[in-house]
Amino acid sequence: MSNINEKRICKNCSGGFSIEAEDFNFYEKIKVPPPSWCPECRQLRRYAWRNERTLYRRNCDLCGKSTVTIYSANKPYKVYCNECWWGDGWDSSQYGRDFDFSRPFFEQFAELQHDVPRMALLNKRSVNSEYTNHSGDNKNVYLSFSVFNGENVMYSTWIMKNSRDCMDCGFIAERGERLYEVIDSRASYQCQYGIFLKDCSSCYYCYDCHGCNECFMSTNLRNKSYVFKNQQYTREEYLKKIKNLELYSFVNRQGLVKEFEDMVKQEAIHRYVISERNVNSVGSLIFDCKNVTQSFEANRCEDSKYIYGGIENKNCMDIYHAGWNTTELCYELQGCTRTANCQFCHLCYDNMNVMYSDTCQNSQNLFGCVSIKKGEYMIFNKKYSKADYETLKEKIIEHMKQTGEYGEFFPPEIAPVYYNETQGNLYMPMPKQEVLAKGWQWEDNVPGTFSKETISSGSIPDKIEGVPDSYLNEIFACIDCSKNYNITKNELLFYRKESLPFPRKCPNCRYKRRFDLRPARKLWHRACMCDKNHISHKGKCEVEFETCYATERKEKVYCESCYNKEVY
What we know:
Blueprint: E1 6-9, E2 16-19, H1 21-30, H2 39-47, E3 56-59, E4 66-69, E5 79-80, H3 82-86, H4 105-115, E6 118-119, E7 123-124, E8 132-133, E9 135-136, E10 139-142, E11 144-147, E12 151-154, E13 157-159, E14 164-167, E15 170-173, E16 177-186, E17 192-198, E18 201-210, E19 213-219, E20 225-228, E21 231-232, H5 235-245, H6 250-266, E22 269-271, E23 275-276, E24 283-287, E25 290-293, E26 295-299, E27 302-314, E28 317-328, E29 331-340, E30 343-346, E31 349-358, E32 364-367, E33 376-379, E34 382-383, H7 386-403, H8 424-427, H9 432-437, E35 476-477, E36 484-485, H10 489-497, H11 507-517, E37 524-527, E38 544-547, E39 556-558, H12 560-567
Parallel strand pairs: 5-6, 7-9, 8-11, 10-12, 11-13, 12-14, 13-15, 14-16, 15-16, 16-17, 17-18, 18-19, 19-20, 22-39, 23-24, 24-26, 25-27, 26-27, 27-28, 28-29, 29-30, 29-31, 30-31, 31-32, 32-33
Antiparallel strand pairs: 1-2, 3-4, 20-21, 33-34, 35-36, 37-38
Protein name: Zinc-binding domain-containing protein
């Protein structure tokens, strides 16, 4: 085992990066060579394979039925609706083939991808939730992504644990209900425009508030009620102030959104990272983790590194949106759940001992397979005996080492989705020319229409009570991007129930606004900005840390000690 750190040059960006001693130990444990790309570029490569929210309609290539899918009609793949893909009307092993040792692995794998039918999208065991992806066990969920056990959820992302009646929300854990424009919060009820809320109810335009009730335009509160712009009032005084705001007015709401965002940037105290109940862990938005480093949005993980959106990962590295029920000894996964000893996989669920495979389910001992269901000892979709499988697998691995392919995730060049459809276009945006120069692909026919609106944004009533049912049949234009959008019956009912004004932005622009408010998935070295007198320091605090706030950002970023003194 290695006991030293090693400096390397990334083959993608030419920047320097380090491979630490414990990293080498992990690579040796799973018998893969160290990566040639730096951690950030490795995540970029995984981003390039995840089309989370760009949806199309095309006909199923088996039954002919129109279906919602992440693959545009011009993509050169066979796409089956979920009913057909899971059905018995086809056999993925019929596409099995021998491996050609005179050619690179990825070249042959791309050919297999073009031949084997693909699942339209990942959406399991759901009712009336056709427009969802990377989701399951939902009811009445619409245009939402990574939602599990949700009900009546619209235009939202990463909604977990029995949440219901939520719209335009993101990263909600533990029973969110009646939420609107709330992000990175948990166990809250009837809140609007909130960030980092926990156990709150009826809080509007609040940041980093815990255990609060009936608070408005306030920050860093704990167990408070009837606080208006960080000032304490009686119940009667508070309710009068709220009534005078006329929250049902679109014009008034626009001003409040601007005031809220300015408050978050200029007045709020920001904890250097969000890290709770962790042991020996480094990252942000990590909870109940042990020995987890350089990770973001990780829950109940252990002995892992470079986790981006992981739940219950153990002894894992370089994982993106993967986990559940202890995903263990895994490396370079994207969109995989309930897996053990799996490496270099994409959209694979409920598997064990699977490598270099795409959209394989309920299987074990696969190598280089596509769309296998309940398979075992298969290579390139061809069945082998256990002994023959092990022998051939090792031979292919040696071949891949010679071609420089083994130990690397699938290249973006062969991704079945194109870069501007993926999360990479949000987290690491690049212009079309740069994407094409890398040899990656770009989709010119993304969904959406323009100039088809039947109602202008200027003629929409200021208050929701003035919006008629006939708007369900109208077309609108986003005031930001000009793309057309419409509304659904459940959406209009939600606006009326919560006294919310009719939206003037399309769902994607509303999502982009929330996305821009979230902390980065990256760490910078900074010093605490607290300049108050505390027991531990007089004047400027000298504590330094790794934070998810870039060095040029102006927010008040505090170390843990100063934050706790000011907030709790």
